[in-house]
């Protein structure tokens, strides 16, 4: 499938309905690897696909142009999902790769680039391709050191690579075709929370730069092309970068014999009494990326784990490692809880992660319980939840 965006500008990407795992991100809705073609005096591809989608990409490309007529392949970012097919693509087309020095280094470390022609561009570098001019704006650490975006001056199109994307396979290509805009923004938020969050402090500067450009389309490398909701997605990126919190508690737990689960539910009931929005997730049953989406702007983060073999439960340990890497905002309240048999070990592990993240840790005697919590213990958990929800 090929989709025309403007005269001589096409989406020729591939839709991966089956992908369910993306370095820890469970992509339950699949994803897309968006590749774009600009036909001009020089014909240009923007980014590529994973290796196994090379065939689909070539079918799309051949339906518009002879691949041998491609002059340049712009690579905005070296990660494998956008470059896995690049060796074959360069061999087949003979095209020159346009990228920045850091990305060139990353490509050389991942692929056999012997014989490739490169043009490297500096910050705000420009290349004329005929009627059009491509401007390259480096966006390092969003989310790799090599990231840049490409702006087509005449068409006012921003090719933003990972920024503003979503992991979502769909038949719709443009935001205005997508019926449920709230869902689209929720998917965009989930992507932000799991890909861009560690480097969010850099985003306001990038948005400032982008606001100086007239942008009619934002074409990311995953998901939907933005046309009608450009202002909204830029504002959302600023909001999600700001570390502002809503009155939400995320209670993420796992449980061995339902004791820690009962504590989670009782604390949650107390919080709900105070009109706190409560989200309770069993970490063995919920993708970590869904939990992180809700933690992004949550005021409270409560993590529960039973003690198993002198340590924390494995699914909770996995989540803590994942959350620590993503470094959510420090202005959160952290609560650790859980049951144990004879030696309580799990909550200390959780609190260590909270300390590393700078969370304000709230403790209470009711938050650990030997074996099975009885009614009086659960009542204490409930009352703790209420006290927590009433805190200013
Ligand atoms: Fe979609 Fe960072 O690759």
TrEMBL record:
InterPro entries given in the database record: Flavodoxin/NO_synth, Flavoprotein-like_sf, Metallo-B-lactamas, ODP_dom, RibonucZ/Hydroxyglut_hydro, Rubredoxin-O_OxRdtase
GO MF term list: electron transfer activity; FMN binding; metal ion binding; oxidoreductase activity
Protein name: FprA family A-type flavoprotein
Top-level taxonomy: Archaea, Methanobacteriati, Methanobacteriota, Methanomada group, Methanococci
Residue ranges constituting the Flavodoxin-like domain according to the UniProt record: 249-389
Organism: Methanothermococcus okinawensis
A Pfam family per the record: ODP
SMART domains (alphabetical): Lactamase_B
